[in-house]
Amino acid sequence: MAEALAITPTEEQVAREHLAHHFDTPQQQFDAGNLGMWMFLATEMLLFSGLFCAYAVFRAMHPEIFKYAGRYLDPISGLINALVLLTSGLTMALAVRFAQTGKRFALSLCLALTMLGGVAFLAIHAKEYFDNGQAKLLWGTHYAPSVGPNGKPVAPVTGLVPPVAKPKPVASAGWTRLDALGKAGFVVSHSDILPAPAGPAGVATAQKQTAPENPFQPANVQIFFGIYFLMTGLHSLHVIIGIIVIGWMLIRSLKGEFGPGYYAPVVYVGMYWGVVDMVWMFLFPLLYLIH
Fold this sequence. Notes:
By secondary structure, this protein is mostly helical. It has helices at residues 9-17, 26-61, 63-69, 75-101, 104-134, 222-254, 264-289; strands at 171-172, 175-176. The chain has a domain at 9-15 and 23-142 and 222-289: Four Helix Bundle (Hemerythrin (Met), subunit A) (Up-down Bundle). The chain has seven helices and two strands. Strand 1 (171-172) and strand 2 (175-176) form a beta hairpin. The two termini are 38 Å apart.
């Protein structure tokens, strides 16, 4: 994307017209912008890396939560979104090439298709969020699902249901610890989780259940959905920003501002969109597939 192309004297003049006063040559300006963009993208990766670390820590401490809650998500929707973003990444890469070669109509078309892919991604995500809200699959104390991960209504507790271990009260020096739901008198922590049994039986559930009507649900499932909404919400925000910037590039493209003599902004936006695609390629398997 960043290689220098042979340009005509007219294109050289165009490049000079876009040259900022503190640069000596168009190539120097392009290289400086390229370096600055890589530095910015590095900070973006640091931002998401913190969330991935949080995901790894909570998953290691509470595997039963992720095994249970991950089944609520629809992997087909996640896969469709992955394909949509990959396709939009291809059209963005083509837009960069068409900007370099001066094919203005093809450039504008690819930018429009990239924007359309971003909008489609957000629409699918919005449908997921709406379904989650309807089913109360939310974060914190808002988590109150009426269905199990198989989509069937949760059955009330009966005599046929295995008994649930009663949580132990926790008190120390005149104060009481609170659980994740803000209830006093007990706490569910990593030390309260039974060791995972060997073989295909799966991991053990926590001793305290957060929903008495569903005794097979592990405690603190809301942690998963807190992580889910934080990570996917932040990513969606980056998609929205990308759509806005690509729309700006499209307007400038329709005005004929980009060509072999000046195409740096399209390259920079293409780099940003590539990182947006890459982040989803990690979020999709971690949230939708690995249970």
